[in-house]
Amino acid sequence: MRKVVKQVLGVDVAQKELVVSLGRMYEDWTPELYAGKTFANTEKGFNALLKWVRSQTDNAVSLRFVMEATGIYHEAFAYFLDGHQQDISIVLPNKMSNYMRTLETKTITDKTASEAISRFGLERKLDNWHRPKETYRKMQQLTRERDQLVLERTMLKNQLHAEESGALPFEGYIIRIKERIGLINKQEHIIKQEIDALIETDPEVKQVLELICTIPGISVLTAAIILGETNGFELIRNKRQLASYAGFDVKEKESGTSVKKKPKISKKGNRHLRKAMHLPALVAIKHDERFKATYAHLVAKHGIKMKAAVAVQRKLLEMTYTIYKTNKKYKKNYLEEQKDSAQVAVE
């Protein structure tokens, strides 16, 4: 009888259900997927899943639960498993999608997705997931709430403009819209105060945030969005991975001489991160020599200003990760220092 050396439960998470596949690796490195089932994405379903898993696995061999970071739907299950001292790995969606392309799976269903996740867990050495810092979780909640308020205010301002521009504007309607806009302004101010107060409660997070804010264009709010959406870069291992997580990775399609599409960013990532980098990039292009030079070079290369601006957005986001990893402030005069060093080397 072959010995089992590794066990993995691959979990495909949806809003209402968890589709799971059990896999095991034998001592001769042969993987096997041998059981699968669907459970409700509720606490009752979690308990039933855990009971089923224990009946299907070898208690003498450690079991790892592997799932994708699917918005917020995986969080409750991850917290449940963490509370039951289980080994958990949460994988970025882009890593799983890239892995699935290497498989011979032609039809993508919840079942085949969970099987791919299980196989991925068997083949790879994955890091343990840890419950996020409460500060980062609250940051994400507050910054997303503010983003929703900003969207509502923009919609109301458009409605106000349309009504005031009409032939017979309705005064009562205008008054009520202005009151709603005023309420949103007050709520946004309160949220900003709560974010500032939250930062003050955690010296470690405050230090990281202050370092990130040395980058031109990056405000406290932008830094809070980045830290909240990445859980303090918890699942990020390099700059390329961060860019992919945000949807800034470049997608190309080329086949022979007949198919050749223009490269473009995938946008298959965290839209909150992409949106947060728009205004900071414009500020950096205007006030920082490094990003101004990058922007000018790209515009001269292909003549598309928006494409160049998106490239700066990506570089800014990657710079936040560099600052976080090195624990050093951004050097505004970096290009000048490099030129001086080069000049000294020539002399």
Shape, per Cα inertia axes: globular
The quaternary structure here is single chain
Q: What do the pLDDT scores average to?
A: 89
* CA-CA gap between termini: 72 Å
Question: Which spans have pLDDT < 50 for at least 5 consecutive residues?
Answer: 254-260
> How do the SSEs run, as a string of H and E?
EEEHEHEHHHHHHHEEHHHHH
Helical content band: 55-70%
Number of strands: 7
SS element count, helices: 14
Write out the strand line-up for the largest beta sheet, numbering strands in chain order.
3-2-1-4-5
How large is the share of residues in beta strands? 15-25%
Structural class computed from helices and strand pairing:
alpha/beta
Q: Key terms for this structure?
A:
single chain, alpha/beta, 5-stranded mixed β-sheet, two-stranded antiparallel sheet, 14 helices
